[in-house]
Amino acid sequence: MHFDKYNFFTYIDNLNQENIIKFNKKVNFILRNYEKKFINKELINFVNFCKKNRRKIYLANDVKKAKALDFDGVYIPSFNKLPIKYDLGIKRKFSIIGSAHCIEEVLIKKNQNIDMIFISPLFENAKKKTPLGIVKFNLICKDFNNKFIALGGINRQNKAMLKLLNINGYAAITYYKIYN
Questions:
Q1: pTM score, two decimals?
Q2: Mean pLDDT confidence for 42-61
Q3: Looking at residue 152, which CATH number applies to its domain?
Q4: Residue 180 has pLDDT above 60, yes or no
Q5: What are residue 64's phi and psi, to 5 degrees?
Q6: Which of 59, 84, 122, 133 measures 20 to 30 Å from 48, CA to CA?
C-alpha cells in the first residue's frame, strides 16, 4: 500500500533542527511541550528553519502565538474544549487541527471549526490499553464530513491496516523518538 497519499504527523517537544532534517519532507510536525516555555525568538528561528527546509510545523494549543510567529497552523488538544477566537485574522493557509477520543469530543472539535481531527487511540499503545479499533474508529467518523487523522499505537506491523479507514492521514507520538 502506498502511504504517500496520506498526511503524516508526528509530535516533537524540542527545537532540535538536526532531528527535523532527518525526516522526509512530507512529515508534518506538531510542537507540543506543556512543561517548557519557549521564547519567541527561539520559536521564530525554528519556524524559519522549518519553512526554509519545507517542513510544516504546528504549535500546540496557542492560536494567537501560532499565527503571530507564522506557524503553518495550530493543534488544539482534546482537553481544550473552549471556543476558538477567529477574530485574530487567521491567514489563508493556516490550518487548525485537533484531537478527540470519542463522539462527544468530535462534536466539540466540529464546533471549534477544526480542519482535521485526530481520533485516538486507534490501536493499543503503552498509554491507552483499550483502543478504539478499526470498526469503532470508522463508526465515530462516518457521520461527519471532516478530515480525519488516525492516531495511537500505529507502528510498522499494523500500518497496513490504515487502508481499512476513511482517513486523510495518520500520526504517531513516539515515532519521532523511536525512528531517530
A1: 0.89
A2: 96
A3: 3.20.20.70
A4: no
A5: -60, -45
A6: 84
The pLDDT value given to residue 53: 95
- CA distance linking residue 23 with residue 145, whole number of Å: 30
**Which band of pLDDT confidence, cut at 50, 70 and 90, is reported for residue 1?**
very low
Summarize pLDDT for 123-162 with one digit per residue, the tens. 988 776 789 999 999 998 888 888 999 998 888 888 889 8
Number of domains in the chain: 1
Containing domain of residue 105, as a range? 7-178
Measured CA to CA, the distance from residue 23 to residue 34 in angstroms comes to 23
Strand partners, 133: none
**Sequence-separated (6 or more) residues with CB below 8 Å from residue 39:** none
Residue 118 three-state SS = strand
DSSP 84: P
Q: Is 117 helix (H, G, I), strand (E, B) or coil?
A: strand
CA pair distance 11, 174, nearest whole angstrom: 8
Could you tell me if residue 1 is inside a domain?
Answer: no
**Mind spelling out the 3-state secondary structure of 11-39?**
EECCCCHHHHHCCCCCEEEEECCCCCCCC
Phi-psi region for residue 3, left (φ > 0), alpha (ψ -120 to 50) or beta?
Answer: alpha
Whether 38 is in a domain gets the answer yes
Higher-confidence residue: 2 or 88?
Answer: 88
Residue with cell 477544526: 114
